[in-house]
Automatic annotation (TrEMBL):
GO terms for biological process: riboflavin biosynthetic process. It comes from Candidatus Filomicrobium marinum. This is GTP cyclohydrolase II. One of its GO terms (molecular function) is GTP cyclohydrolase II activity. Its cofactor is Zn(2+). Pathway: Cofactor biosynthesis; riboflavin biosynthesis; 5-amino-6-(D-ribitylamino)uracil from GTP: step 1/4. It catalyses: GTP + 4 H2O = 2,5-diamino-6-hydroxy-4-(5-phosphoribosylamino)-pyrimidine + formate + 2 phosphate + 3 H(+). Residues 32-187 form the GTP cyclohydrolase II domain. Pfam families: GTP_cyclohydro2 (PF00925). Gene3D superfamilies: GTP cyclohydrolase II (3.40.50.10990).
Length: 211
């Protein structure tokens, strides 16, 4: 899809606003530029946090985390997935990197199938299915996430070339398809728990994640 096509289908409205957001991160107060984006479809929403370079700081290619929202993981620190640990690990890099960027996509919940379907899939996993087979069983795609909004945001920020914090090669490929140059894939290292071992194993074996 060309840049023009992305902009015309995703972002043809007055769709962004910004402020400064001070956050507490591991005992430090950090000032981040915060932007909210919305496209024509209300599910096309994103919160973007940017660690802008301070005067005199060396600016390299932006380091970007494109994080799929996960209510159970990000907010309640669920141990069934590694979303919270990945978010924390990504933030650690972002707050120490000039032009570190977090793009947070709330509607990517459950790899894009939504909260209710995610919990439905969890119930099937309780009966022995893995994450891939559970999604198939409830008639949902294994991964329903789209990255056209993310690409449009990166173009808007002037970040056409990025270093991407991810273990997921499909995410790298999807952004490249949208016209973003992914100069480097930086792995996000997390510690497995007894609850998410199978989830992580399925990501590695069936979804080619580099874990
Ligand atoms: Zn999660």
């Amino acid at each position: 899809m060309s840049v023009t096509a992305v902009k015309s289908t995703v972002l043809d409205v007055d769709w962004s606003t910004q402020t400064v957001l001070p956050i507490e991160f591991r005992g430090r107060e950090i000032q981040l530029e915060a932007r909210a984006y919305q496209g024509c479809d209300p599910t096309y929403q994103a919160l973007v946090l940017i660690n802008r370079p301070k005067p005199g700081e060396d600016v390299k290619i932006p380091v970007v985390r494109v994080h799929s929202g996960c209510v159970t993981g990000d907010i309640f620190h669920s141990l069934r997935c590694d979303c919270y640990q990945q978010l924390q690990a990504a933030l650690e890099t972002i707050v120490d990197t000039p032009n570190g960027v977090l793009i947070y996509l709330p509607y990517h919940e459950g790899r894009g199938i939504g909260l209710v379907n995610k919990i439905r899939a969890y119930a099937l996993q309780d009966k022995g299915l893995d994450t891939v087979d559970a999604n198939v069983e409830i008639g949902e795609p294994i991964d329903a996430r789209e990255y056209d909004l993310t690409a449009a945001i990166l173009f808007d920020l002037g970040f056409n070339e990025i270093r991407l914090l991810t273990n997921n090669p499909a995410k790298v490929e999807a952004l490249r398809q949208e016209g973003i140059t992914v100069a480097e894939q930086i792995p996000v290292v997390t510690e497995p728990s007894i609850y998410n071992q199978r989830y992580l194993e399925t990501k590695r074996v069936r979804m080619a994640h580099k874990l």
